[in-house]
Amino acid sequence: MIQPKAVVLLSGGMDSATTAAIALDAGFEVHALSFRYGQRHAAELAAARRVAGSLAICDHVVLDVDLRTIGGSALTDDLPVPKDTPLSRIGDRIPATYVPARNTIFLSLALGLAERLQAFDLFIGANAMDYSGYPDCRPEYFEAFARMAALATRAGVEDGRRFTIHTPLISLSKREIIERGMALGVDYSITLTCYDPTADGVACGHCEACLLRLKGFREAGLEDPAVYDGLGSERKRHPGE
């Protein structure tokens, strides 16, 4: 039996690492895709390489797409990353860390790679539960993208093939994501979730991504194995509150 191929978007964070592990566990031959897009948290690429190696992913492609030219985000411009947002308020509005059309750009490039590989399954670690409210992380967005993929590719038009956009984390809390990943043997110590890490790749512990990650570990009753800049154990257990 031929092993089906899948393209997995791999940022090096907790969610994408879990998603890659889920794809592997489902029996897919995983081709990981990461992006060097001018992000201030470029240390995530080193994390993506660590995750790909840890999971023994057969192929890992890194594409250069400089979104600094477009700008408009705290992740690509010289704008402050929101810090210490109360947990109850995260997701109330689209934050400054939103990158205009990022998932559409990334998924379009992933679709091109997938069509070339004849891989009709794409995985992305999007989450619409414990998240910052990004519009391109919602189920209806991914449903629309799958419809577009069928119309925009030769495989879809000539061969009638359909691309499935897998979002296995879409309705999970961070606690549930962590528990799923732990069951699959994901090494979270090598991941980087932070939007504003130090120059040597240490998480800040104060941005919304860090706060949600720490919340998930706390609710799971586990110690986050990641290193945080200047965070003592007490602060680590009670972020954003």
Give structural attributes:
241 residues, 8 helices, alpha/beta, 5 strands, 5-stranded parallel beta sheet, Rossmann fold
Characterise this structure:
This protein is of the alpha/beta class. It has one domain: 3-Layer(aba) Sandwich (Rossmann fold), CATH 3.40.50. Helix content is 35%, strand content 10%. The protein has 8 helices and 5 strands; from the N terminus they run βαβαβαβααβααα. The chain has helices spanning 14-25, 43-54, 102-117, 139-152, 154-157, 174-183, 208-219, 233-237, and strands at 5-9, 29-36, 59-64, 121-123, 164-166. It has a 5-stranded parallel beta sheet with strand order 3-2-1-4-5, sandwiched between helices. Helix 2 links the parallel strand 2 (29-36) and strand 3 (59-64). Helix 1 (14-25) packs across helix 6 and helix 6 (174-183) packs across helix 7. The longest helix is centred in the middle third of the chain and has 16 residues, at 102-117.
